[in-house]
Amino acid sequence: MINLSKNYALAITAAAMLCLTASEKLVAESPDASANITFTATGTFATPQLSGGDLFKLVGEPFTISVVVNSAATPSSHGTSWAKYTKLPMTGVISTALTPTPYDISTKNASIELATGNPSYDTFAMFATVSVVGTPINVTATIQLPPGTLTKPLVHTFAPVALKTADTVIYAETTGTPPPSTTLAIASGTIQGTIPTGGVDRTAAASVELLSAGSRVVTAHADGTKLVRPIGTTAVELGESSDKVALQFYASGVREGSEIHVQIAGHEVPVLHAGPAGYFPGLDEITVMVPHSLAGSGNVDVDLMVDGRSATPVHIQIQ
User: Fold this and answer.
1) Nearest CA among 272, 271, 313, 269 for reference residue 291
2) Which end of the chain is less enclosed by CB atoms within 10 A, N or C?
3) Element containing residue 185 per DSSP (H, E)
Protein backbone atom coordinates (compact mmCIF):
# COMPACT_ATOMS: atom_id res chain seq x y z
CA MET A 1 0.00 0.00 0.00
CA ILE A 2 1.37 3.42 -0.92
CA ASN A 3 0.97 5.98 1.86
CA LEU A 4 0.85 9.71 1.27
CA SER A 5 0.48 12.45 3.83
CA LYS A 6 -3.05 13.68 4.47
CA ASN A 7 -2.24 17.16 3.20
CA TYR A 8 -0.73 15.82 0.00
CA ALA A 9 -3.73 13.56 -0.63
CA LEU A 10 -6.13 16.46 -0.03
CA ALA A 11 -4.14 18.68 -2.37
CA ILE A 12 -4.34 16.10 -5.15
CA THR A 13 -8.03 15.62 -4.43
CA ALA A 14 -8.73 19.33 -4.66
CA ALA A 15 -6.89 19.59 -7.96
CA ALA A 16 -8.81 16.63 -9.35
CA MET A 17 -12.18 18.02 -8.32
CA LEU A 18 -11.43 21.39 -9.92
CA CYS A 19 -10.93 19.50 -13.18
CA LEU A 20 -14.07 17.37 -13.01
CA THR A 21 -15.73 19.29 -15.85
CA ALA A 22 -12.69 19.16 -18.10
CA SER A 23 -11.03 16.33 -19.98
CA GLU A 24 -7.67 18.00 -20.52
CA LYS A 25 -4.80 15.73 -19.50
CA LEU A 26 -2.12 17.38 -17.43
CA VAL A 27 0.95 15.42 -18.46
CA ALA A 28 4.27 16.55 -17.07
CA GLU A 29 7.74 15.39 -18.11
CA SER A 30 10.73 14.68 -15.96
CA PRO A 31 13.96 15.64 -17.81
CA ASP A 32 15.66 12.36 -16.90
CA ALA A 33 12.48 10.22 -16.83
CA SER A 34 14.08 7.44 -18.88
CA ALA A 35 17.74 7.83 -17.98
CA ASN A 36 19.64 4.69 -17.02
CA ILE A 37 21.70 5.50 -13.93
CA THR A 38 24.70 3.40 -12.89
CA PHE A 39 25.66 3.28 -9.23
CA THR A 40 29.35 2.33 -9.03
CA ALA A 41 31.32 1.57 -5.86
CA THR A 42 35.06 1.06 -6.10
CA GLY A 43 37.38 0.51 -3.17
CA THR A 44 39.43 -1.81 -0.99
CA PHE A 45 38.27 -4.01 1.87
CA ALA A 46 39.79 -3.30 5.28
CA THR A 47 42.03 -5.72 7.18
CA PRO A 48 41.13 -7.67 9.25
CA GLN A 49 37.50 -8.66 8.75
CA LEU A 50 35.01 -7.48 11.36
CA SER A 51 33.59 -10.98 11.89
CA GLY A 52 33.53 -14.47 10.36
CA GLY A 53 36.20 -16.55 8.72
CA ASP A 54 36.44 -14.68 5.37
CA LEU A 55 36.07 -17.89 3.38
CA PHE A 56 36.93 -16.16 0.10
CA LYS A 57 39.94 -14.20 1.43
CA LEU A 58 38.67 -10.77 0.47
CA VAL A 59 40.30 -8.71 3.23
CA GLY A 60 42.72 -6.15 1.89
CA GLU A 61 41.60 -6.81 -1.69
CA PRO A 62 40.15 -4.31 -4.21
CA PHE A 63 36.65 -4.45 -5.68
CA THR A 64 34.41 -2.68 -8.19
CA ILE A 65 30.62 -3.10 -8.23
CA SER A 66 28.09 -1.46 -10.58
CA VAL A 67 24.28 -1.60 -10.43
CA VAL A 68 22.10 -0.17 -13.23
CA VAL A 69 18.59 1.14 -12.59
CA ASN A 70 16.33 3.30 -14.73
CA SER A 71 15.34 6.60 -13.12
CA ALA A 72 11.73 5.89 -14.11
CA ALA A 73 11.73 2.54 -12.30
CA THR A 74 8.81 1.90 -9.98
CA PRO A 75 9.94 0.83 -6.50
CA SER A 76 8.79 -2.68 -5.58
CA SER A 77 8.08 -1.44 -2.07
CA HIS A 78 8.60 1.75 -0.12
CA GLY A 79 7.73 3.84 2.91
CA THR A 80 7.83 7.56 3.54
CA SER A 81 11.63 7.67 3.74
CA TRP A 82 12.83 4.56 1.88
CA ALA A 83 12.34 2.75 -1.42
CA LYS A 84 13.44 -0.65 -2.71
CA TYR A 85 14.16 -1.40 -6.37
CA THR A 86 14.47 -5.01 -7.54
CA LYS A 87 15.49 -7.17 -10.52
CA LEU A 88 18.46 -4.98 -11.38
CA PRO A 89 21.57 -5.94 -13.37
CA MET A 90 24.77 -5.90 -11.34
CA THR A 91 28.34 -6.53 -12.46
CA GLY A 92 31.62 -6.40 -10.64
CA VAL A 93 35.24 -7.43 -10.31
CA ILE A 94 36.79 -8.61 -7.03
CA SER A 95 40.25 -9.82 -6.14
CA THR A 96 40.84 -12.64 -3.69
CA ALA A 97 43.77 -14.47 -2.14
CA LEU A 98 42.42 -17.55 -3.96
CA THR A 99 42.80 -18.44 -7.60
CA PRO A 100 41.69 -17.43 -10.14
CA THR A 101 41.88 -13.73 -9.38
CA PRO A 102 40.63 -11.15 -10.20
CA TYR A 103 37.15 -12.66 -10.40
CA ASP A 104 34.17 -11.38 -12.38
CA ILE A 105 30.76 -11.47 -10.68
CA SER A 106 27.33 -10.64 -12.08
CA THR A 107 23.60 -11.08 -11.59
CA LYS A 108 20.40 -9.84 -13.19
CA ASN A 109 18.48 -9.95 -9.92
CA ALA A 110 20.16 -7.49 -7.59
CA SER A 111 18.19 -5.00 -5.54
CA ILE A 112 18.96 -1.68 -3.90
CA GLU A 113 17.30 0.16 -1.06
CA LEU A 114 17.62 3.91 -0.65
CA ALA A 115 16.75 5.54 2.68
CA THR A 116 16.82 9.12 3.97
CA GLY A 117 15.21 8.91 7.42
CA ASN A 118 18.39 9.03 9.54
CA PRO A 119 19.37 12.68 10.22
CA SER A 120 23.07 11.74 10.31
CA TYR A 121 23.30 10.02 6.94
CA ASP A 122 21.44 8.68 3.92
CA THR A 123 21.71 4.94 3.22
CA PHE A 124 22.46 3.02 0.05
CA ALA A 125 22.04 -0.76 0.51
CA MET A 126 22.53 -3.49 -2.10
CA PHE A 127 21.38 -7.12 -1.97
CA ALA A 128 22.49 -9.77 -4.47
CA THR A 129 23.28 -13.43 -4.95
CA VAL A 130 26.46 -13.97 -6.95
CA SER A 131 28.94 -16.76 -7.62
CA VAL A 132 32.50 -16.50 -6.30
CA VAL A 133 35.00 -19.19 -7.34
CA GLY A 134 32.03 -21.35 -8.29
CA THR A 135 30.15 -20.94 -4.99
CA PRO A 136 26.87 -19.01 -4.79
CA ILE A 137 26.82 -16.47 -1.94
CA ASN A 138 24.40 -13.86 -0.66
CA VAL A 139 25.92 -10.40 -0.44
CA THR A 140 24.58 -7.40 1.49
CA ALA A 141 26.39 -4.07 1.22
CA THR A 142 25.38 -1.08 3.35
CA ILE A 143 26.85 2.32 2.61
CA GLN A 144 26.33 5.50 4.62
CA LEU A 145 26.10 8.61 2.44
CA PRO A 146 26.31 12.19 3.73
CA PRO A 147 22.80 13.52 4.51
CA GLY A 148 21.38 15.25 1.45
CA THR A 149 23.16 12.99 -1.04
CA LEU A 150 19.79 11.44 -1.90
CA THR A 151 16.92 13.77 -2.75
CA LYS A 152 14.31 11.73 -0.90
CA PRO A 153 14.72 7.97 -1.52
CA LEU A 154 14.94 8.48 -5.29
CA VAL A 155 16.98 7.08 -8.15
CA HIS A 156 19.15 9.93 -9.40
CA THR A 157 22.74 10.92 -10.05
CA PHE A 158 25.14 12.08 -7.38
CA ALA A 159 28.82 13.04 -7.27
CA PRO A 160 31.48 10.67 -5.91
CA VAL A 161 31.20 10.06 -2.16
CA ALA A 162 34.11 8.66 -0.15
CA LEU A 163 33.59 5.21 1.38
CA LYS A 164 34.63 4.65 4.98
CA THR A 165 35.01 1.90 7.59
CA ALA A 166 31.39 2.40 8.72
CA ASP A 167 30.39 0.96 5.34
CA THR A 168 30.16 -2.84 5.39
CA VAL A 169 29.75 -5.87 3.15
CA ILE A 170 28.34 -9.14 4.55
CA TYR A 171 28.50 -12.41 2.63
CA ALA A 172 27.53 -16.05 3.29
CA GLU A 173 27.02 -19.23 1.27
CA THR A 174 23.49 -19.89 -0.02
CA THR A 175 23.54 -23.71 -0.18
CA GLY A 176 24.33 -26.56 2.16
CA THR A 177 25.12 -25.83 5.79
CA PRO A 178 26.22 -22.21 5.59
CA PRO A 179 29.30 -21.13 7.50
CA PRO A 180 29.05 -18.06 9.75
CA SER A 181 28.62 -14.96 7.67
CA THR A 182 31.62 -12.75 7.11
CA THR A 183 31.45 -9.00 7.69
CA LEU A 184 33.99 -6.80 5.95
CA ALA A 185 34.63 -3.11 6.45
CA ILE A 186 35.73 -0.89 3.58
CA ALA A 187 39.12 0.79 4.01
CA SER A 188 38.70 3.33 1.22
CA GLY A 189 36.93 3.98 -2.06
CA THR A 190 34.08 5.92 -3.64
CA ILE A 191 30.47 5.47 -4.73
CA GLN A 192 28.67 7.61 -7.27
CA GLY A 193 25.57 7.64 -9.47
CA THR A 194 26.10 8.57 -13.12
CA ILE A 195 24.37 8.55 -16.50
CA PRO A 196 27.06 6.82 -18.58
CA THR A 197 25.69 8.10 -21.89
CA GLY A 198 25.72 11.66 -20.58
CA GLY A 199 22.06 12.14 -21.38
CA VAL A 200 18.59 10.68 -21.44
CA ASP A 201 17.97 7.21 -22.85
CA ARG A 202 14.62 7.30 -24.64
CA THR A 203 15.18 4.43 -27.04
CA ALA A 204 12.69 2.14 -25.32
CA ALA A 205 9.06 3.06 -24.77
CA ALA A 206 8.08 2.99 -21.14
CA SER A 207 5.95 0.04 -20.12
CA VAL A 208 2.40 0.90 -19.14
CA GLU A 209 1.12 -0.35 -15.81
CA LEU A 210 -1.97 0.43 -13.76
CA LEU A 211 -1.58 -0.37 -10.06
CA SER A 212 -4.33 -1.44 -7.71
CA ALA A 213 -2.17 -0.77 -4.64
CA GLY A 214 -2.75 2.70 -3.25
CA SER A 215 -5.87 3.34 -5.37
CA ARG A 216 -8.49 5.69 -3.91
CA VAL A 217 -12.04 6.82 -4.56
CA VAL A 218 -12.70 10.54 -4.05
CA THR A 219 -16.29 11.70 -3.59
CA ALA A 220 -17.10 15.43 -3.74
CA HIS A 221 -20.50 16.17 -2.19
CA ALA A 222 -22.75 19.06 -3.15
CA ASP A 223 -22.24 20.67 0.28
CA GLY A 224 -18.52 21.06 -0.42
CA THR A 225 -17.31 18.16 1.70
CA LYS A 226 -15.10 15.41 0.32
CA LEU A 227 -14.57 11.78 1.24
CA VAL A 228 -11.37 9.94 0.34
CA ARG A 229 -11.05 6.23 0.97
CA PRO A 230 -9.03 3.34 -0.47
CA ILE A 231 -10.43 1.10 -3.19
CA GLY A 232 -10.23 -2.28 -1.58
CA THR A 233 -12.61 -5.17 -1.23
CA THR A 234 -15.60 -2.85 -0.77
CA ALA A 235 -17.56 -1.53 -3.72
CA VAL A 236 -17.22 1.97 -5.16
CA GLU A 237 -20.36 3.87 -4.27
CA LEU A 238 -21.45 6.62 -6.68
CA GLY A 239 -23.78 8.20 -4.12
CA GLU A 240 -26.32 10.87 -4.94
CA SER A 241 -26.73 12.29 -8.43
CA SER A 242 -25.20 15.54 -7.18
CA ASP A 243 -22.03 13.77 -6.01
CA LYS A 244 -18.94 13.78 -8.20
CA VAL A 245 -16.82 10.64 -7.94
CA ALA A 246 -13.23 10.25 -9.12
CA LEU A 247 -10.84 7.29 -8.98
CA GLN A 248 -7.13 7.83 -8.36
CA PHE A 249 -4.61 5.18 -9.38
CA TYR A 250 -0.85 4.90 -9.34
CA ALA A 251 0.57 3.91 -12.71
CA SER A 252 3.68 3.92 -14.87
CA GLY A 253 4.29 4.93 -18.46
CA VAL A 254 1.70 7.72 -18.63
CA ARG A 255 3.73 10.87 -18.01
CA GLU A 256 5.03 11.16 -21.57
CA GLY A 257 1.93 9.81 -23.30
CA SER A 258 0.26 11.91 -25.96
CA GLU A 259 -2.95 9.84 -26.08
CA ILE A 260 -4.19 8.48 -22.77
CA HIS A 261 -7.48 6.61 -22.57
CA VAL A 262 -9.23 4.90 -19.66
CA GLN A 263 -12.27 2.66 -19.91
CA ILE A 264 -14.40 1.37 -17.06
CA ALA A 265 -16.60 -1.61 -17.94
CA GLY A 266 -15.83 -0.90 -21.60
CA HIS A 267 -16.97 2.74 -21.40
CA GLU A 268 -14.57 5.60 -22.06
CA VAL A 269 -14.31 7.90 -19.02
CA PRO A 270 -12.76 11.37 -18.68
CA VAL A 271 -9.10 11.47 -17.65
CA LEU A 272 -8.75 14.39 -15.24
CA HIS A 273 -5.05 14.15 -14.44
CA ALA A 274 -2.12 12.06 -15.67
CA GLY A 275 1.45 12.73 -14.62
CA PRO A 276 4.23 12.07 -12.10
CA ALA A 277 2.97 11.09 -8.68
CA GLY A 278 5.08 13.76 -7.03
CA TYR A 279 6.99 11.80 -4.38
CA PHE A 280 8.63 9.11 -6.51
CA PRO A 281 9.60 10.07 -10.09
CA GLY A 282 9.23 6.42 -11.06
CA LEU A 283 5.55 6.44 -10.13
CA ASP A 284 2.86 8.15 -12.18
CA GLU A 285 -0.65 9.01 -11.08
CA ILE A 286 -3.89 9.06 -13.04
CA THR A 287 -7.31 10.35 -11.95
CA VAL A 288 -10.54 9.59 -13.82
CA MET A 289 -14.18 10.55 -13.32
CA VAL A 290 -16.82 7.86 -12.88
CA PRO A 291 -20.16 8.74 -14.55
CA HIS A 292 -23.34 7.92 -12.63
CA SER A 293 -24.50 5.89 -15.62
CA LEU A 294 -22.15 3.12 -14.36
CA ALA A 295 -24.00 2.74 -11.06
CA GLY A 296 -24.83 -0.90 -10.35
CA SER A 297 -22.24 -2.24 -12.82
CA GLY A 298 -20.85 -4.69 -10.26
CA ASN A 299 -17.46 -6.27 -10.96
CA VAL A 300 -15.78 -4.37 -13.79
CA ASP A 301 -12.35 -3.79 -15.33
CA VAL A 302 -10.50 -0.49 -15.44
CA ASP A 303 -8.43 -0.42 -18.64
CA LEU A 304 -5.58 2.02 -19.33
CA MET A 305 -4.13 2.63 -22.79
CA VAL A 306 -1.25 5.01 -23.52
CA ASP A 307 -0.26 5.68 -27.12
CA GLY A 308 -1.66 2.30 -28.16
CA ARG A 309 0.02 0.37 -25.33
CA SER A 310 -2.29 -1.32 -22.84
CA ALA A 311 -1.85 -2.03 -19.15
CA THR A 312 -3.17 -5.11 -17.38
CA PRO A 313 -6.70 -4.19 -16.20
CA VAL A 314 -7.45 -3.42 -12.57
CA HIS A 315 -10.62 -5.01 -11.18
CA ILE A 316 -13.05 -2.96 -9.09
CA GLN A 317 -16.68 -3.27 -8.01
CA ILE A 318 -19.21 -0.48 -8.59
CA GLN A 319 -22.33 -0.53 -6.47
Assistant:
1) 269
2) N
3) strand 182-194
